[in-house]
Amino acid sequence: MQSLQQKASEWSGVDPNDAFAIDETNLFEKLGLQAFINLSTNFYNRVYDDEEEWFRSIFSNSSKEDAIRNQYEFFVQRMGGPPLYSERKGHPALIGRHRPFPVTHKAADRWLQHMQQALDSVTDIDEDSKTKMMNFFRHTAFFLVAGDELKNQNQSVACKHAANKPAAE
Amino acid sequence: MQSLQQKASEWSGVDPNDAFAIDETNLFEKLGLQAFINLSTNFYNRVYDDEEEWFRSIFSNSSKEDAIRNQYEFFVQRMGGPPLYSERKGHPALIGRHRPFPVTHKAADRWLQHMQQALDSVTDIDEDSKTKMMNFFRHTAFFLVAGDELKNQNQSVACKHAANKPAAE
Question: Which positions make up the signal peptide (chains A, B) (predicted)?
């Protein structure tokens, strides 16, 4: 069976070494907090205005402000900054926290399209950092698609187990 | 509804600020790789020799060598060292990767008991670092118990949905 990492690399076309090249330099120290806030704000402005209702609706249970903060705090923490996300919300637990959402190949593609446009729009991130971040995002998006498929497998097994139990249980 | 973080703090008795005090100093630079290898080796020697079959069996699908490596690579990465874990396996995805296992309160208590004994046994970790690490472990163990309960909720909803669908679907 392919691992989550193997699936993420195959589907994204990004080698793990390139995905985690974000760790070669401290991007938080290089870019500063405001660059991350600007990126996530630009990204979620696009997401919440998406003309595709199926995609927009994935985010409908969160306010845009919360979505922005959750994202930039995670990025800051993962890219060399203070653990803002974990102090407030705990471990990133990326697969667990995405469990309620349908993280399909199509949704990953659309998420990445908005993120590419957001990166193209912001002016306070240099080209090399943009390349590293986009490789990380591509790999991570498909890592989560792989995590989503695992969820579906587990659920169908669990349902079969449940169906075989006595009704009164 | 209580968040994962709130449940982790309530059940472990560890405030998030104490759990993530591991980030105040770079523990990897302070302790070095061998200290992490020694800790995980000591820990899993205890786990794989546990007299309680119910606990030992949780780990029966992995070799002890793999379990040791997965653990120390994650600890190294999370505590300031190189991203050894992610380069090999991808995001830690703690809740997602624990999905196959019954992470109950009882299992968390027993995991922590072995880890406390392992920390007490190793000589190359100073007392302050031990305290910080144990707070992180306590909080994380119950964070995963909270994640496990979420899984059960989601599964029962998914099974109800599945049961209401036409059989041919």
Answer: none
For chain B, domain boundaries: 4-156
Q: Which two tokens stand for residue B34?
A: 């061998």
> Which amino acid belongs to residue B36?
F
| DSSP SS3 for B105 | helix
Global pTM reads: 0.90
Shortest alpha-carbon distance between residue B154 and chain A (Å): 8
d(CA B100, CA B95): 10
Residue of A17, A133, A86, A40 lying closest to B17 (CA atoms):
A86
* Structure token pair of residue B132: 């910080």
- pLDDT (tens digit per residue) in A107-154: 999 999 999 999 999 999 999 999 999 999 999 999 999 999 987 775
Query: Does residue B1 sit at the A interface (CB-CB below 8 Å)?
Result: no
Closest CA to B67 of B92, B91, B41: B41
Q: Which amino acid, residue B46?
A: R
Letter for the amino acid at A110?
A: R
Question: Phi, psi (5° rounding) for residue B24?
Answer: -70, -35
Report ipTM (2 d.p.): 0.88
Among chain A residues, CA nearest to B8: A90
Q: Is B155 on the interface with A (CB under 8 A)?
A: yes
Interchain pair A93, B158: CB under 8 A: no
Q: Assess contact for A139 and A16: CB atoms under 8 A.
A: yes
For an interface test with B, the pick among A28, A86, A88, A145 (most B C-beta atoms closer than 10 Å) comes out as A86
Query: A4-156: which CATH architecture?
Result: Orthogonal Bundle (1.10)
